[in-house]
Amino acid sequence: KLLALFIFVFLRNVSSNMEGDKMSITRATGSSAVIPCDLPTQNKQYIHWYKFQEGTVPRRLLYYDVSYSKVVLESGISPGKYHGYEGTDKMYKFVISNLQESDSGVYRCAVWEKHIGWKKIFGKATELIVAPPDLDIDMSPKPTMFLPSITEIKRENTGTYLCLLENFFPHVIKVYWREKRGNRVLPSQQGNTVKTADTYMKFSWLTVSGNSMDKEHICIVKHEKNKRGDNQEILFPPKERIVTSSHHCVLTFQKNRQLIKGLLLDTLQLHLMNTSAYYTYLLLLITSTVYLVIITSCVFRRTGVCGIQKSS
Would residue 125 be called left, alpha or beta, if left means φ above 0 and alpha means ψ between -120 and 50 degrees? Predict the structure, then answer.
């Protein structure tokens, strides 16, 4: 029940795992970052680079003239901050020097494609996170597995696998599921990435039924800080091994119950704090409006309550 409540709390913030890829790079303040362009650039005259930042319109920073190997900066941008070049791997790359926190954002390259009516095509997003250099070395996602209950398996012949990922940085992460010997990405659900102190957490779950219960499933985690840059693969056992090891499952649940309870309470507390702040602001706004009406009435009408007080 507690696990079901935990999932329910996040249900309205659930998003599909079938999202486009977005990579991230984390660099320390004062260092440099190199962002490659993933678009096919054969026979292209210009390679454009844009910055996308929340709350602002996309801004073109520069374009690279392929014919003359020349960088042309947008007006108002000082030389030395941004640069572009063609690498030895024939990929065009964008360089940001002397990184500051304000450089954090999403960057994309773009080209004009004449075969589809001269439309501008954007490459995949790369999110740059500029952070202090004293971050913990191991900031990869730390997984915890939660297996379906024996009751759920025996009564309904279905099972819900939950993969909890904690203590990772930066926040950009991709989680998806597939069968152990399959290549197809399975439809699953996941909660929003939640900030906890200086790191982040996220969970994803997969519900399987019927013959799929007899197969092993893998939760695949793609993150910048994974060891050696490889995807994490968390293996979930089939129905038979869950049922035969029911005692172990009970012990595992008891061991992690406090963890789930803590996560649930933290999430509820965060939700209540946000809700309380909203209603406090709304109350202050209403109060200010009432005071404005009273003062306006006093100034322009000089009657009613104000008039009585004056005559007395």
Answer: beta
Contact 74, 48 (CB under 8 A): no
| Euclidean distance between CA atoms 34 and 60, whole angstroms | 17
Q: Identify whether the C-beta of residue 47 lies closer than 8 Å to the C-beta of residue 66.
A: yes
Helix (H, G, I), strand (E, B) or coil at 238: coil
Q: Could you report the average pLDDT of every consecutive run of 10 residues in the chain (312 residues)?
A: 40 38 85 90 87 90 93 92 88 93 93 84 91 73 88 85 91 92 91 86 91 92 87 90 57 46 53 52 68 66 47 40
pLDDT in tens, 259-312: 555 555 555 455 445 445 555 656 666 776 776 667 766 666 654 444 444 444
Look up tokens 């004009």; give the residue.
Answer: 112
Q: CB–CB of 102/53 below 8 Å? A: no
**How many angstroms separate the CA atoms of 243 and 157, rounded?**
12
Smallest CA-to-CA distance from 7 within 260, 177, 200, 272 is with 260
Nearest alpha-carbon partner for 141 in 173, 110, 98? 173
Spatial CB neighbours of 65, under 8 Å, sequence gap ≥ 6: 45, 46, 71, 72
Cα separation of 158 and 109, whole Å?
A: 45
With a pLDDT cut of 70, the percent of the chain lying above it is 71
Pinpoint the alpha helices (H) of the chain.
2-10, 150-156, 239-244, 246-300, 304-311
Q: Which CATH class is domain 30-131?
A: mainly beta
Cα(222)–Cα(268) distance, integer angstroms? 28
Q: Which CATH number fits domain 2-18+137-255: 2.40.40.20, 2.60.40.10, 3.40.640.10, 3.40.50.300?
A: 2.60.40.10
| Mean pLDDT score of the chain | 78
For CATH 2.60.40.10, list the domain ranges present in the chain.
Answer: 2-18+137-255, 30-131
